[in-house]
């Protein structure tokens, strides 16, 4: 082989192996892609590589202040298909929300939030957050540290710490008024971050009536915001718990409640076009400490056969343990998408089946990083999954304790660490809509709204930078 032939072959191989998702770009988009590349280069000039690739978005202000971060924030992202109820607002926005409320107090030691009508808190240690900040009792940085994974000491178990963190926010659900305002604020925040559709994974309650109350509050808040911003669509994926030691009746109870809720509450914002509001069922918990799906399979199969149109969106593949093979069960049970699916690399045949059947992975890169499943996002397997034809949608998981800006952080991190270009970003946004759990008509409306926002974004960037 001559050197010229070698170079030609090399060029082909680089091209063959570099394509991620690769949607087609028009000439304006290609110009904006050049801008994206220049912003990436600018970021690499400003920050040393070692620090940059750590992607410590909870702490590294230089990253939020970068032009690339602003660009990614402005990208119309479509949907967030995997985010947990009461975890939607990132900590700094939750501080604003809690500070603005007379009905909430915060324990100044651990920053646990309480409703003033609760009996369980120590009044001597708790006060209104805005007063605590004004009087210098605590600082915003202190609260952010207490509310996020930033506060974890190196020797603390990350999952234990994480689960305790989520306990700090539970009182947001204590009063319907507080919860309603929380969701209004969160949905407006999502729109501000250019995400129009949210599939909230919600663990309501073992009690059906309480579950209905909570689901109704989310629906009321969603419709309140939708009056002003019609493009917003919110759906609920009811989630159940499958922690080790739980009776098999517990996951089944959550599933029964989900099915009852689905028949009770609908998205009837437009009375002439009523859509499902409860779109499916999920089972969660730290996977290594959960009942294996194979043990739940008899129960799940029974309902799958009886309600084949009620979709499963099961958390699994979020484990580094080689013996945890729940992805196989999720596939056999017909899960429409899976939450995470990180360890799909262990099962090459299953990986091909996921690609073939278009089972979308709800990839949550920042969550995987902050929960220590992958230390360096350059090694996150989602790049390979995409190259092998597996459909992926980027999701945020638990932004309250993991992210600086919900979903923006995930797009930003993979743009830098996996070297995405605009065509990849565009396809990930499209995937989030096409693989959402929405009804076809809703999906088509959402797709139109996204396309309009995308074209406006491209025009704006093109005109600002090239005219
Ligand atoms: Zn999750």
- What is the CATH first-level class name of the domain at 72-90 and 176-450? Alpha Beta
The name of the CATH superfamily of the domain at 72-90 and 176-450 reads Metal-dependent hydrolases
- Percent of residues in beta strands? 5-15%
Give the strand order, joined by hyphens, for the main sheet. 1-5-6-9-10-11-12-13
What is the tally of beta strands?
13
Tell me the span between the first and last alpha carbons: 47 Å
Low-confidence stretches: none
Q: Overall 3D geometry?
A: globular
What structural class do you assign from the helix and strand content? alpha/beta
Descriptive account of the structure:
The protein is α/β, with parallel strands linked by helices. It is built from 21 helices and 13 strands. Strands 1-5-6-9-10-11-12-13 form an eight-stranded parallel β-sheet. Strands 3-2-4 form a three-stranded antiparallel β-sheet. The mean pLDDT is 94. Bound molecules: zinc ion.
List keywords for this structure.
alpha/beta, 50% helix, 467 residues, globular, TIM Barrel, 3-stranded antiparallel sheet, 8-stranded parallel sheet, binds zinc ion
Summarize the structure.
It is built from 21 helices and 13 strands.
Which helices and strands, and how do they pair?
Elements: H1 3-18, H2 27-46, H3 49-54, H4 61-64, H5 67-74, E1 78-84, H6 91-99, E2 104-107, E3 113-115, E4 126-127, H7 129-134, H8 140-147, H9 158-167, H10 176-192, E5 195-202, H11 208-226, E6 233-241, H12 249-264, E7 266-267, E8 275-276, E9 278-284, H13 293-306, E10 311-316, H14 326-332, E11 337-340, H15 348-356, E12 360-363, H16 365-370, H17 382-387, E13 392-394, H18 399-402, H19 408-417, H20 422-434, H21 440-466
Parallel strand pairs: 1-5, 5-6, 6-9, 9-10, 10-11, 11-12, 12-13
Antiparallel strand pairs: 2-3, 2-4, 7-8
Helix pairs in contact: 2-21, 5-19, 10-11, 11-12
The structure holds zinc ion.
